[in-house]
Amino acid sequence: MLKKSKLMDGNLIAVSLSAFAIVLSTFAIVTSPSKKLEERVVESGTKVGVVNIKYVQENAKVTKALNEQKDKYLKKLQKRTEDKKAELKKEEEKLKAQAKTLSQEALKEKVLAFQNEVMEFERETAVKVKAVQLSFSQEIQKVQMDHLNTILVSLAKEKGFDVLTQSSDSVVINSDFDLTKEVVDALNKKVSTLKMEDPSKLEAKIKKATK
């Protein structure tokens, strides 16, 4: 019986968007999560800007477009898995029916072949999911390297901020510190969509890397 692959679980196949972490070589990064933002500002004497990266990920046009493409590919894989499960279920029932008439050796061979078929399908599915993840992450990295980093540095300089931090780690005490919507607007003006590379073209690369 084919078990439901964990790789098809929505929580486990969600692709990390950590590529959007703010990394500015020309600015200091506030990293201490134990102190509130205002305490760190007072102590350091710096002007701190805040960006809600999750909001950027969820609302920028380009990331929305990429997420839609990724979800479309994953839905196809889910359909493929469901179809294969139905096919394997029929094969399993057929084996059960043959158990009474086949010799023990012949039955053992058929069961082994069935198990191998299941494992091979699971391996193929794992590669296909990783290919989708890789294709998606490649485009996310392009957004970061080609657009987002420049926007963050530019806005920080324009507003006179010495430090940028993520709002998930901070308490925003003044909306003037929050650059989130300005980041989204600037990103939308620069790029609205990117096309993911066909994941099937990346499968050979992933197979080679996992050998």
CA gyration radius, whole angstroms: 25 Å
Major beta-sheet overview: 3 strands, parallel
* Overall residue-averaged pLDDT value: 80
Strand order of the largest sheet: 1-3-2
What form results from the Cα inertia axes?
rod-shaped
With helices defined by DSSP (H or I, 4 residues minimum), what is the helix count?
7
- How much helical structure, as a percent, in the residues? 55-70%
Oligomer state of the chains in this structure? single chain
Order of helices and strands: HEHEHHHEHH
Low-confidence runs: 1-34
| Termini Cα gap | 27 Å
Class from helix and strand fractions: mainly alpha
How much of the sequence is in beta strands? Answer: under 5%
Q: How are the SSEs ordered, and which strands pair?
A:
Blueprint: H1 10-13, E1 28-29, H2 37-44, E2 48-51, H3 53-59, H4 61-98, H5 104-159, E3 163-166, H6 180-190, H7 203-209
Parallel strand pairs: 1-3, 2-3
Helix pairs in contact: 3-6, 4-5, 5-6
Structural write-up:
With 211 residues, this protein is mainly alpha-helical. The protein has seven helices and three strands; from the N terminus they run H-E-H-E-H-H-H-E-H-H. The chain has helices at residues 10-13, 37-44, 53-59, 61-98, 104-159, 180-190, 203-209, and strands at residues 28-29, 48-51, 163-166. The chain has a three-stranded parallel beta sheet with strand order 1-3-2. Helix 3 runs parallel beside helix 6 (180-190), helix 4 (61-98) runs antiparallel to helix 5 (104-159) and helix 5 packs across helix 6 (180-190). The protein is rod-shaped, with a radius of gyration of 25 Å. Residues 1-34 have low confidence and may be disordered.
